[in-house]
Amino acid sequence: MSEIRFYHLERQSLDQILPIILGKALQNGHRILVKAPHANEVERLNTHLWTYNENAFLPHGSAKDKIDNLQDQPIFLTDQDENANKADVLILTNGCESPHLNDYTLICDMIDGRDEQAVSAARTRWKTYKDAEHDVTYWQQTPQGSWEKKA
Prior knowledge:
By secondary structure, the chain is α/β, with parallel strands linked by helices. It contains three helices and eight strands, in the order E-H-E-H-E-E-E-E-H-E-E. It has helices at residues 14-27, 39-51, 116-131, and strands spanning 3-9, 32-35, 60-62, 75-78, 89-92, 106-112, 135-141, 147-149. It has an eight-stranded mixed sheet, with helices on both faces. The longest helix is centred in the last third of the chain and has 16 residues, at 116-131.
């Protein structure tokens, strides 16, 4: 079964946290798929990852980039249920889900803690994943910005 981590974003936004998580996953040798709910969000994230820090670089792309060999793409952004770059880490944004959880060793479910509907939907996903016997953990930001495992 896959390890599923819920990241409860309260102090920082997805745009602030995503580059950090992607950077750490890359440093640990992972290939990452980021799933967004629709094409406009994919392209917004794609642009954000190119511009979030002029001194940093995260090798990434989306279908719009027309990459020849997606298996060479370390980070791929999509709104489809595909593992085009043969990722072992899946990052789910904005309430996205995937029926292919067992294709990944790690899934990060990013929750907007300022949106009660998003939190409620995440509770439902937690129960579903737990009932399917996935290794599920819950991470919450501390006031200092680090992550603390709460469950």
